């Protein structure tokens, strides 16, 4: 009897250990019942997917018990999304042919839904699509998204601007953790290579409910490239050439995946000379180079998933001051920045049947050095001067270390309610090692707690949430450049915030979204404590230790209409900000530099985007796209806000042919962007003239057995216009933006 019980128990344990849930099925064309080959089958909550074979069949193994959303997409068909219970019998899915482009799952919002299902409007673009349009780098590429621009210093430094807000008002997420790299500085770029980034998502509006402080203007969410499908090994070499900067970038990638373990590695290098403006004059010291390494290791068992990612980026970027000697060299001149950025993240997901826990942990180390020219005796030779500068120590060196965590619990469904509760936090230290101190040594401690819920009806969806945040910031005293002793700051900031949104859809053709949200931003170290010459901005900045939180409330209305041949959208917003922090010029000078001081006043930003996309029947390969965007920013007591992008209209004529045995994914496009005059400059700005930029490109994928060769040729500013963007920080020196640029790309994948 005892032996029988032991055998029974061992058999039960063996079944628990070795049994695996799987999901299998068939994908068919609803019109012809023919199998659909190479359809994407994806479980977003589990981040697990596969593709259908020649017979339309698929299988997903090693799945946990529970109910999960299943998303099926394929080129030429409408994307399908529905819930499936695991374990499950074999299923059959019929896809409806459609010219509407493939929908993707949105990762930056909590419930991982398709955009058409999302209550909050989110823009999503794959980096490969942005690169097809001739983007020099990631900061340049995101300007292709309506409502997004870039604050630039030459072509090597760019910061996202979302509906007129930038720097610490726009939060950047990479590898699932918030990016911290002294982003308060106008001349501090993203510090992330586009190579190894799969897609970009943009939340336009306050996202403090999800992300806490610094998301008052929106979020730029960078999704890393995915691992290879289970049982596959892939490799790729990518190379790009840019005619204007005589620049190039090369990237090597390899990845392999088993049923449980996955690995990925990528190395990239880019180098650019000074760019030429429309007069064929090179803008001195806009050259830059970049080294980037990305690696990942993933593990997925039945009830646990882990994703460990690491990114190292080293950028050497010249800081332009004036037009000078014409050169094609790629090593930066003085002054220049040398920035090392390390990002290490670990994403843990635990599945408990009808609920799950997601715990993201991140560590970042940002080493920012700035090298400047020093005064020398007149009799010193140029060679001696160069040797001294090259062997010298950086005038400014800051080490920023950041630990952050984001823990979310997906509660079991309660009727039609999906609810997520979580905590987020950050511990950060800033340390100075150079002779110049721009901001003092400091410690920052953040903690936030939130809950959000989603309620689904047949035609309506509602989503709302509450959040509480606290931030403590403590700095050391330091000796400023003018000789004054700046006392340390010990401040605490707190804020309650809420969001409420509703979405109405009619047969998935008409979608209306209304979102109301509050947000906040605690003043940063620069605004509170800076007291020194900001060389990159050519001014002496003085902070204000008595600044309050910025607190905002935004109303966002989004309307969409789509059918198989026509799409249109209208987005409108009003963003009221209490205690908006801005820098204002004074009549003072220190060391011949104008003095700017930080102040606060109430402000309002309003505007929106309008767009249409036409792909007429039977010419489904023909696409006509048009988008219009505008934003106005004003202080309530009079005057306009600085760094507000000019109104623009972009028209694109695009042709796409997906089919083809040897040549597939063929496309060509012509794009005209009209930027209107900016007649509402800020207090220390001047108006900016209108201009138009013509771009075009074409490409295809050459299929050679197991090898794919992706070839692209594109051009920007093809008429070589001389123009100055209102968001160019070289505008005050009368320096033009980049002229004609031709980009050629060749990517080989196996």
Describe the structure.
There is one protein chain. The chain is mainly beta and 750 residues long. The chain has two domains: 20-98, Sandwich (Immunoglobulin-like), CATH 2.60.40; 122-318 and 338-749, TonB-dependent receptor, beta-barrel domain (Maltoporin, Chain A, Beta Barrel), CATH 2.40.170. The protein is 6% helix and 55% strand. The chain has six helices and 40 strands. The chain has a 22-stranded antiparallel β-barrel. Strands 8-13-14-11-12 form a five-stranded mixed sheet. It has a four-stranded antiparallel sheet with strand order 3-2-5-6, with no helix packed on it. A hairpin with a 3-residue loop joins strand 18 and strand 19 (304-318). The chain is globular. Mean pLDDT is 87; it is low at 1-19 and 375-389.
Distance between the termini: 59 Å
Low-confidence stretches: 1-19, 375-389
How many DSSP H or I helices? 6
For the largest beta-sheet, the strand count, sense and barrel status come to: 22 strands, antiparallel, barrel
- Level-2 CATH architecture of the largest domain: Beta Barrel
Please give the CATH class of the largest domain: Mainly Beta
What is the total domain count? 2
CATH topology of the largest domain: Maltoporin, Chain A
Question: What is the CA-based Rg, rounded?
Answer: 27 Å
